[in-house]
Design brief:
This protein has 293 residues and is of the alpha+beta class. 43% of the residues lie in helices and 18% in strands. It contains eleven helices and eight strands. The chain starts with a helix and ends with a strand.
């Protein structure tokens, strides 16, 4: 029974991975049921029963997630081009679907995103993925590395995690204006609290960009700091790096007690090496660093 369930889940996981790798293709029921090796007559019911949303809605949300990131965090594409990428034949159809999901037009979202309905809209997508897409880690995935001290400019986020996307948007705008592109200046997140603390007001994370340049007085309260060098346990995560909490828990709960190592007095942090939507979600890469004595 257990082997049969694992096989069933693996086939469904294969479908989710195929969707994310082929968002620009025609993702109809027949092609997706073939990926899962299920009967096309029952596949849509099996998918809905497993993930809590239909195949069509899952695909639409995945495309709208990419489109909303392109609108909020990049300015290289027009709304029309983003609509085409999302599978809509005309901008007005895209605008209707976008407004229905997020309560804003694409242009309004690009100028001033309202993140609360955005987070609520993608709740079902995140829940669906969390059921089957979480990775498991082993000691072979962890290396110990001596890392140099890195000078950084930081923007602190303190308070409700729901407002983090707005902080990220401001941070991206500031580093663009400062000429600190991710291809030349590394990006770090330093977690100073749990991902979901008991009180949302206690959530705390630093958004950092590596730079040696002086930080001038600015309206965004960007300040200079450094990430200390030294020995670190490093865990590389490939794909679906929105939620790195399972990887962090593995380092703290499983790897650290068994390793005989002791954690140093600095929070766990990550370096983001590639970014969605510049690359598909399954190609995003992040490395977690657990500072050691």
């Amino acid at each position: 029974m257990k082997a049969a369930l694992q096989n069933y889940q693996a086939r469904m996981r294969r479908v989710l991975d195929h969707i994310d790798r082929h968002l620009d293709d025609d993702l109809d029921l027949e092609s997706l049921s073939a990926v899962a090796a299920f009967s096309k007559f029952h596949f849509h019911r099996q998918f809905t029963a497993t993930f809590g949303l239909s195949v069509h809605r899952y695909v639409q949300l995945a495309r709208l997630k990419r489109a909303s990131h392109q609108l909020a965090f990049t300015d290289a594409q027009s709304v029309t081009d983003i609509a085409m990428d999302a599978g809509y034949e005309a901008p007005d159809a895209f605008a209707r679907a976008f407004r229905q999901r997020f309560g804003q037009s694409p242009s309004s979202f690009r100028n001033s995103p309202d993140w609360e309905p955005w987070l609520a809209a993608f709740g079902p997508l995140d829940i669906a993925r969390s059921k089957l897409m979480q990775r498991t880690f082993t000691t072979d995935d962890v290396t110990i590395r001596n890392v140099p001290t890195t000078k950084v400019a930081i923007m602190e986020h303190r308070g409700d995690p729901a407002t983090l996307p707005a902080t990220i948007q401001r941070f991206i705008a500031w580093r663009k204006a400062a000429g600190l592109h991710p291809s030349t200046n590394p990006t770090f997140n330093v977690w100073r609290s749990e991902r979901r603390p008991a009180r949302p007001a206690d959530f705390s994370v630093d958004l950092c960009v590596g730079t040696e340049q002086p930080i001038a007085a600015n309206s965004e309260a960007i300040k200079a700091a450094e990430i200390p060098g030294g020995r670190c346990a490093v865990l590389r995560v490939v794909g679906y790096t929105d939620n790195l909490e399972p990887a962090a828990l593995y380092l703290y709960r499983d790897w650290l007690p068994a390793s005989g190592e002791e954690a140093r007095d600095f929070p766990i942090y990550c370096q983001r090496l590639s970014f969605f939507p510049e690359v598909p979600e399954h190609e995003t890469v992040a490395e977690l660093f657990l500072p050691l004595k």
